[in-house]
Amino acid sequence: MQSTSVLRRHAQFIAWSVLLLSCAANGFAADIYSAGQLTIPSLSIGGGNYSDVVVTPGSILGIAGGAPNGVRDNYNPFDTQLTIPNVAVGSHTYANVLITVGRLVSIGGATGVDSYSGGQLTIPSVQIQGGVQYTNVVINVGTIVNAGGGMPVNVRDVYDPATQRLTIAAVLVGSKVYTNAIVAVAKVDSVGGVAATQLTTEHALAQTGLAIALASTVLQSQLQILSGLGMGLSTCETLNGGGSVMSGATATAVTVYYDNACTKPYIVANANMTTGTDASGGMQIVIAETATYYGLADAVIGTLTLNETLSQILVGVTESAAVVHGLGIFTPASGVQTPVQLGLYCTIPANVLTECAVLLCAGGIAQDFPAFGMAIGAVTPLTLMVESLASDGPLTFSGTSSTVNSGPLGSLILTAPGPTSMAITGGRTFASYVSTGGAAAFALFPPTPTSWTLADPASGLQVQITVLNNTTRNLSVAITQSSSGTTLATGAVDQSGTGTITYSDQSVEQVTSWTLGGNL
To answer: What is the pLDDT of residues 273-283, one digit of tens each?
Structure first.
């Protein structure tokens, strides 16, 4: 009779030998179970392949038998289950076995995982927490937060933008494989084979180029909303260039429409308006507004909260100009829903109704890009040359000092120190863009030919946004390398400023009401 101690020593062996399914002559390198440990010649976890792995088994979940499915083991970190095509236990071999893994003993080698050398970490695949997945990423490692260990807990690296920390599924350092290490990311060098500096510039150009349309749209719509609040437009009023406006059922409600008949809402605004006197003695109107924006399919695309002021500037008793300025927050209704800080100011000369005039304006924008792990913002002053509004004439504009800032998530704040000044605090200035363009009319929905370009002299990259036709007012977006003419990124937006942009690393970003709304 066997002793109790012998039975205990062979308990796991007996469990593994419950069902004899096939002999070892099957052409595959089998796992070997011996002395409480399982030796795995080849193991897949996500995109990584590991060799000579030793683990302690947990529970046996099943032995399917038949012909082995596959040539290597596969491990699922999320349920700790290991699928084994073939395993030798003593003189017996079993096929298609499913077990749980107890603990990792050792890893002999690995391919398809991160590699570290000279301060740089090369990452085959990384998941942004709450965002998208990127491939072929190279970063500079800061501090090692945790050395990790054990079986990989993820199939790929995971980056947390809030802490700027990266959890590494597995990394090869020299000949040794480390798992589950956590490191601080010092700098991103490239993504998808594209330099991170170029990707940052592509995002910044797209954001700042779209912000020109955003500032124009907000300015034009707010002038109409002010008119509706002040005049009580109880009947539908058609706008130059397309669209219409009408006051709502209450004194604080005004709706701007896509169509000319006040049937297809674009912006539904509710505003509280107070009047006073500015420093020159002219009338001043202060508005606190919440506006809901609708897309072409009648769905809500976002909400804008805005505080703005309209001041009448007097010289003596004569009006010389009106100044409109304000700051707001736009929040997309879908996607990542990251709030976007926006602002504008514009000095409108009194003679704009009768003759050519110069308008000194600016648009500002700042927002976080969680999937990109940074905040980007810009202030773009623009000089507008406008023909008489009475004749619905065209306009041209130019600007030479778009100040572009970047920084960690949450670091940028858009401010308005004065009625005709705007700035971004936080982060650092990394670029200054030059803008040029024109529109067929000073209108909410300008017809063709309407196009503008924003260029970065330092990198040679530029973005061009163009109205394509007068029926739909759709627009194209293209980011190119000006010296070679190579197209790096393309996009398309509709009349509401909603669409997508595809960057040079093939990541796709949602655009909502002229704001970048996060990667898809």
So the answer is: 899 998 888 99
Tally of CA atoms within 13 A in the half-sphere of 185 that contains its CB: 28
Is residue 263 classed exposed, middle or buried when 0-12, 13-18 and 19+ CB atoms within 10 A define those classes? exposed
Examine residue 370 and say whether the peptide bond preceding it is cis (omega within 30 degrees of 0): no
Q: For residue 217, how far is the Cα from the chain centroid?
A: 22
Cα separation, 162 vs 152, whole angstroms: 22
Sign of CA dihedral 455, 460, 463, 469: positive
Cβ of 264: how many Cβ atoms within 10 Å?
A: 14
Over the range 199-229, which residues count as b (16 or more CB within 10 Å of their CB) and which as e? bbbbbbbbbbbbbbbbbbbbbbbbbbbbebb
**Closest C-alpha to 375, from 413, 416, 422:** 413
CA nearest to 293, candidates 283, 279, 304, 306:
304
Q: How far apart are CA 91 and CA 315, in angstroms?
A: 103
Residue partners of 36: CB distance under 8 A and separation at least 6:
12, 56
CA atoms within 13 A on the CB side of 488: 27
Please count the residues of the chain.
520
Query: What are the tokens at 341?
Result: 């800080």
Residue-wise pLDDT tens digits, 218-274: 999 998 888 888 777 789 999 988 999 999 878 889 999 999 999 999 999 999 989
